[in-house]
Design goal:
By secondary structure, the chain is an all-alpha fold. The chain has 2 domains: 2-83, Rna Polymerase Sigma Factor, Chain: A (Orthogonal Bundle); 100-173, Orthogonal Bundle (Arc Repressor Mutant, subunit A). Helix content is 76%, strand content 0%. The protein has helices spanning 2-8, 16-34, 39-56, 63-97, 101-119, 123-133, 138-145, 149-166. 13% of the residues are buried. The model is unreliable at 1-7 (pLDDT under 50).
């Protein structure tokens, strides 16, 4: 199987070291200027672009614009992930820091009720619902669970409906709306 995978990759041309030496610093500067993200994301995006160059071996006449496009797109992707994770963490902490004692007690009780209700959901539905709440797209969730986008949407919806029912919030199933 490893041999099959290697057969599909382009073979190295021998000029890759020269390309990195000639374009490495300039690629990093262009990506850093084009994408407002952390330096680590820029470094990772450029490394990803170089790895893609090694695997796909694009035309050398247009290699630098190709590297820029690949690195910028990867930097955007990494930045989205970082911002999603930071916003989820910040939102949780902001709510706790600004609350009074009685609000904290109410929030704690509501959180305990939510955790208990979540525990009653099927593990796969629970994970998908939590991923969706954390900002993952339906496409990302579907890919991780190896299901169609429509099936992922349906399972997330059903999980949300079950959770609301268990919390006493009601909600109407789509077939019961008529």
């Amino acid at each position: 199987m490893s041999q099959e995978k290697d057969d599909h990759r382009a073979s190295l041309r021998g000029d890759e070291g020269d390309l990195i030496a000639n374009h490495g610093a300039r690629l990093r500067a262009v990506v850093s200027q084009a994408v407002n993200t952390a330096e680590g994301n820029v470094d990772d995006a450029c490394a990803f672009a170089w790895l893609q160059l090694m695997e796909t071996q694009p035309r050398r006449e247009t290699v630098f614009p190709w590297l820029i496009r690949v690195a910028i797109r990867e930097a955007w992707r990494l930045d989205r992930i970082q911002r999603r994770d930071e916003s989820a963490d910040a939102g949780i902490l902001d709510g706790v820091e600004s609350a009074t004692d009685s609000e904290r007690r109410e929030d704690r009780l509501a959180l305990e009720e939510m955790i208990a209700a979540l525990a009653t959901l099927h593990p796969r539905k629970r994970k998908m619902l939590l991923q969706h709440a954390a900002g993952y797209t339906v496409e990302e969730i579907a890919a991780e669970h190896a299901i169609s986008r429509q099936r992922a949407r349906e399972l997330i919806y059903r999980a949300r409906l079950q959770l609301n029912q268990r919390l006493g919030r009601g909600g109407v199933a789509p077939r019961e709306r008529h």
